[in-house]
Amino acid sequence: MMRNPLRWVISLIFVVQMYAMMAILAVFFTPIAIFSKPAAWLACRTYCRWVRWTAGWMVGLRSEVRGEVPTDEVLVAAKHQSFFDIIILASVLPRFKFIMKKSLTKAPILGWYALRIGCIPVDRGKRAEAIRQMVRDVENGQAEPGQLIIYAQGTRVAPGVKQPYKVGAGVLYQNSGQDCVPAATNVGVFWPRRGIYRKPGLAVVEFLPRIPAGRPLPDFMATLEEEVEEASDRLMAEAGFYVGGNSME
Q1: Alpha helices in 83-123 (DSSP H)
Q2: Distance from C-alpha of 94 to C-alpha of 100, rounded to nearest angstrom
Q3: What is the C-alpha to C-alpha distance for residues 217 and 198, in angstroms, rounded to an integer?
Q4: How far is it, in rounded angstroms, from Cα 197 to Cα 12?
Q5: What is the reported pTM?
Q6: Burial class (CB in 10 A: 0-12, 13-18, 19+), 109
Q7: Largest alpha-carbon pair distance within the chain?
């Protein structure tokens, strides 16, 4: 089915203004954020809320957060479908920090702010060393409380695609001694991993009931995958996308 050319143009305008606002807010906040970490978080949260707001009225992509938003020191193991789920998570979590690809630290503006708020870069090409590095960095950063977000599948996964969950989330769960809050989403139905086109609709990130600390690793991994995948499939079906069937256009 051919996409609406006008909607493609509107999507392009939305994307352009989104990155322009990133530069504008960086100019405004960076002199303060250099000396104040709370100001860095405020800058990121302000930007993310701007993106959510403009997505709503420019391209008709509304967004919603469901479930109890964690505010304590906790591990958030989330489904990752596109940049928009990062935006939504960072717009509501008070002290968020991500396990992120090391290459992203070189991205203009984004990389500096990520390091400033305590995000943990890892080299995904060296899996075993990456896990050890994550554990070391988390242990070294325990004095900085917050919500540590890890994408349990290790990368963006398109709607309807099944990809196994990486053991890194379980290793962090065991070594941190923290509860884990799973998070499901359907954002990839509207905002693709790559490309400009944005679909109208309701993008949702849902925080699921927390998994208490102390479970055996195999039990934790099985529970995490089952709950996140089941909830994400439900959210995607709500948006008109059915895994293994037809999707909305």
Answers
A1: 83-92, 110-116
A2: 18
A3: 38
A4: 7
A5: 0.90
A6: middle
A7: 52
